[in-house]
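Work Package 4 report. The design task specified in the project plan requires that, given a folded chain encoded as C-alpha cells, an amino acid be chosen for each position. We show below one input record used in the internal validation round.
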C-alpha cells in the first residue's frame, strides 16, 4: 500500500490515494499505522476516493479508528496532494465530505478553504443544551468550572475562553474529560483559547479521537467565529496554534474561510496484510 505523509502546521496525516488502490479496512489501518510507536505515526488517516457529486471524495479516520466528518488541516493537505500530482488543474476543488461539499482554493503557496456556515444550534452540533445558541454552557470538570461555547464546523467543537495564554493550561487533564462528557452524544473537540487582541487568538486543542494536536483547522474556525459572535474580535483574525498560524475570516455571505499551509513530508509503502 502506497502512502504519503503530510502535515498542516504539525497536524499530521497518512494520505492514501484510493483512486488507484483499495484499502479494505481503513479503521484497522488507522489504528495500526497512526500509532507513533509501532506504525507510521499520524493524527489521522486521509483517503481519496472518486465522487459522483464533486471532484473527489475525502474520508477521514482518527488514530483511534473513528471516522469523522471534516478536518480543516487535512483538506488542505488533501488539496495539495491533488494539485501536486496533477489529478486536477482547477484552482478551486469541490471535495465531498461527511460535512458536505468543501472547496479548497490555491492562494499562492497557501491553501484557502471555504469551510461553509458555522452552526450554533444545540441539536445540530450536537450538544445536550437548551436555547437557540449553545453558548456559555456551565460545566464542572474535576472541580474546574468551565464555560463552553459550542459550534459545529461540520464537526462538533467546545470552545473555552481563558483569561491567560493556554501554554501552561492542563489540556491533557480537562480535554479528554470534556470530549467524552455525556452532554456530547458524538463526543467533541475541545479548544482552550485566549483572545490576545481584536485580531489575534492563541489556542490549544484537544481533538476528538486523536488527543492534543499541534493544530486543528476546524477548531481554529470554531474558536474564531465563537469569539466573533461574542464580539471579542474582528471578523478577520490570526489564530496562533502550537504548530503555526491560520488566518480565519467570517465573511458577509456567512461562510468561514481558512487560509494556511500544507506540506508533504515523504512517500512510503506498507504491507497491509500485516494488520491483525
Amino acid at each position: 500500500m502506497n502512502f504519503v505523509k503530510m502535515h498542516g502546521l504539525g497536524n499530521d496525516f497518512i494520505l492514501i490515494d484510493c483512486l488507484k488502490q483499495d484499502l479494505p479496512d481503513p479503521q484497522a489501518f488507522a489504528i495500526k499505522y497512526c500509532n507513533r510507536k509501532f506504525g507510521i505515526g499520524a493524527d489521522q488517516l486521509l483517503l481519496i476516493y472518486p465522487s459522483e457529486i464533486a471532484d473527489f471524495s475525502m474520508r477521514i479516520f482518527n488514530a483511534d479508528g473513528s471516522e469523522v466528518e471534516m478536518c480543516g488541516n487535512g483538506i488542505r493537505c488533501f488539496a495539495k496532494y491533488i494539485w501536486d500530482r496533477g489529478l486536477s488543474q482547477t484552482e478551486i476543488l469541490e471535495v465531498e465530505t461527511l460535512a458536505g461539499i468543501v472547496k479548497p482554493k490555491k492562494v499562492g503557496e497557501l491553501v484557502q478553504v471555504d469551510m461553509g456556515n458555522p452552526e450554533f444550534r444545540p441539536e445540530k452540533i450536537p450538544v445536550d443544551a437548551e436555547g437557540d445558541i449553545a453558548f456559555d454552557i456551565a460545566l464542572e470538570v474535576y472541580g474546574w468550572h468551565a464555560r463552553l461555547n459550542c459550534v459545529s464546523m461540520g464537526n462538533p467543537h467546545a470552545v473555552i475562553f481563558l483569561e491567560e495564554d493556554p501554554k501552561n493550561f492542563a489540556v491533557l487533564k480537562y480535554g479528554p474529560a470534556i470530549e467524552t462528557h455525556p452532554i456530547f452524544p458524538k463526543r467533541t473537540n475541545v479548544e482552550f483559547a485566549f483572545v490576545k487582541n481584536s485580531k489575534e487568538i492563541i489556542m490549544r486543542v484537544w481533538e476528538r479521537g486523536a488527543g492534543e494536536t499541534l493544530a486543528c483547522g476546524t477548531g481554529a474556525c470554531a474558536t474564531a467565529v465563537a469569539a466573533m459572535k461574542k464580539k471579542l474580535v474582528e471578523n478577520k483574525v490570526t489564530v496562533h496554534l502550537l504548530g503555526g498560524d491560520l488566518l480565519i475570516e467570517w465573511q458577509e455571505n456567512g461562510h468561514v474561510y481558512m487560509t494556511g499551509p500544507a506540506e508533504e513530508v515523504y512517500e512510503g509503502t506498507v504491507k497491509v496484510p500485516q494488520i491483525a
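The first strand starts at residue 2 and ends at 8. Validation will be extended to a larger panel in the next phase.
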